[in-house]
Amino acid sequence: MKLTRYALTLIAAAALAGCGSTVKLDDPAPVKDISTTPAPAPAQPQGNAAPVPDSKVATVDLFSELTTQVQDKRVIYFDFDSDVVKEEYRGLIDLHAKRLNAKKQAALSLEGNTDERGGREYNLALGQRRAEAVAKSLTLLGVGANQVEAVSFGKERPAVQGSGEEAWAKNRRVELKDK
User: Does pTM surpass 0.70?
Assistant: First the structure.
């Protein structure tokens, strides 16, 4: 027990001995005045190096570029009696979303259409569901709800006249038109 007390006393004494130097807080440390020190001269180019011209970065109008890309890609086709956007049109919807996100003042009218089969009211409702499915896809990609308007024309505005699967397939669509 005495040995432990003796060891602790020696450790405490050694710690206090290390703190023997004192620093006066009243004495300010000397400060070097750098305002009179001259600034180093800029490095001189070596050899026959020509001066580098100022680079000018051209601004890119993303909205205009994307508008050009989607100029002839403004129709989304649907299966019979369906309002599900096909996987093959996801890229097109993504391009239109990027375009609308690049310019928040831009807006689209999404015009839903159906083929001639079915009643007038049913086709108006189906065309509306198709247009709203495209609108929902766009809003999920960040497009503002105020930038898209879903409307239905049902079977009133066929793209192709005639009866038969070839004509009907062209009429089951949503057209994306600038407002």
Answer: no
Amino acid present at 69: Q
The C-alpha atoms of residue 8 and residue 16 are separated, in whole angstroms, by 12
The answer on pLDDT for 122 being more than 90 is yes
pLDDT of residue 26: 61
Q: How far is CA 178 from the centre of its chain?
A: 21
Per-domain residue ranges of the chain: 62-178
Which residue, among 164, 81, 78, 176, has the nearest Cα to 122 in the 3D structure? 81
Q: How far apart are CA 145 and CA 165, in angstroms?
A: 34
| Class of 62-178 in CATH | alpha beta
Residue 157 three-state SS = coil
Q: Given the structure tokens 């807080």, which residue do they identify?
A: 25
- Transcribe 4-65 into DSSP letters: HHHHHHHHHHHHHHHT-----SSSPPP----TTSPPPPPPPPPTTPPPPPPP-PPP--HHHH
Residue pair 79/172 in contact (Cβ under 8 Å)? The answer is yes
Percent of the chain as helix, strand, coil, to the nearest 5: 40, 10, 45
DSSP state of 161: -
> Dihedral (C-alpha) 61, 91, 114, 121: value to the nearest 10 degrees?
-80
Residue 18 burial (C-beta neighbours within 10 Å; 0-12, 13-18, 19+): exposed
